[in-house]
Amino acid sequence: MIDVATFYRSLPVLETQRLLFRPLTLDDLPCVYAYASDPEVTRYLRWPAHPSLYHTERFLRQSLDLAARGMDASWGIAIRKQDKLIGAAHLMDIIRSRRQAEVGVVLARRFWGQGYGTESLEAVLGCAFNQLGLERVQGVCCAQNIAGQASMARAGMIEDQACRQGVWQKGAIREMLVYTRTIDKRKADSQTPTPRPSIKKG
Ligand SMILES: CC(C)(COP(=O)(O)OP(=O)(O)OC[C@H]1O[C@@H](n2cnc3c(N)ncnc32)[C@H](O)[C@@H]1OP(=O)(O)O)[C@@H](O)C(=O)NCCC(=O)NCCS
C-alpha cells in the first residue's frame, strides 16, 4: 500500500468515460466558488455555503497547503476535453492499518441528474481499492439527502444500518447514514497476475 502522504502530495489523475479527476489549483477559484457558494449544494454538507470569493480563496489556499504537506487533498472534477471544473471529490480519513477511508463528492447544481455523481464515486472507489490498496470505503450522508444516498447506492455502496446516528449539524440533530463498499477480492485477485510456480527439474 502506498504511503498516504505521498498519495496526497501527488494525487493521481483519474479518468472515466466522461470525467477527468485532477488536483485542484488556484485557477479553479471561480468554479469552486460557483458551487461552494450555492446553499442548495451545501444544504446537506457539513460546511456552510461560502459567503464570499475571499472565503473560497482562503479555503483553496488551505487545501493546497495541506496537499503540499501530504495531509489531505481533493480532486477537481472536470468534464474531459473541456477541463471545465464541475465539482470536487475527496478521499479522506485514510486509515492504513484498517485499510479504510471516507469518500465525498460535490457537484455544481447544473451538473446534477446526469450520472456524474455516480461516475465520480466509482472513480474514487476504484482508485482507493486498486491504487491505494484500501479494502473498505465509506460515505456519510444525511438521511434527507436522497440524491447523495441514490448516487452511493448506484456506485455499489450499501447502507450499514447499525451505523445510523444523530449528529448535531447546522443547528439541528440530523440523522446520518453510513454507506460502505468493500473491495471485491475475486475481481482484485483476477487483476493481479499470479506468479507462475517454479517447477523443479530433474
Ligand atoms: C449527491 C450528488 C453528488 C449526486 O450527483 P448526481 O450526478 O446528480 O447523481 P447520480 O450520479 O446518481 O445521477 C442522478 C441521475 O442521473 C441519471 N443518470 C445516471 N447515469 C447517467 C448518464 N450516463 N447519463 C445521463 N443521466 C444519467 C440517473 O438516472 C439519475 O436520475 P434520477 O435522479 O432521475 O434517478 C449531487 O446531487 C451533489 O453534488 N449534491 C450536493 C453535495 C452532496 O450532497 N454530496 C453528497 C454528500 S453524501
Characterise the protein shown here.
This protein is an alpha+beta fold and 202 residues long. The protein has one domain (4-182): Gcn5-related N-acetyltransferase (GNAT) (Aminopeptidase, 3-Layer(aba) Sandwich). It contains seven helices and nine strands. Strands 1, 2, 3, 4, 5, 6, 7, 8 and 9 form a nine-stranded mixed β-sheet that branches. Helix 2 (29-36) crosses helix 4 (53-68). The structure holds coenzyme A (COA). Coenzyme A (COA) binds next to strand 5, helix 5, strand 6 and helix 6. The site of coenzyme A has 21 residues, from strand 5, helix 5, strand 6 and helix 6.
Summary, kept brief:
The protein is α+β, with helices and mostly antiparallel strands and about 200 residues long. Helices cover about 35% and strands about 30% of the residues.
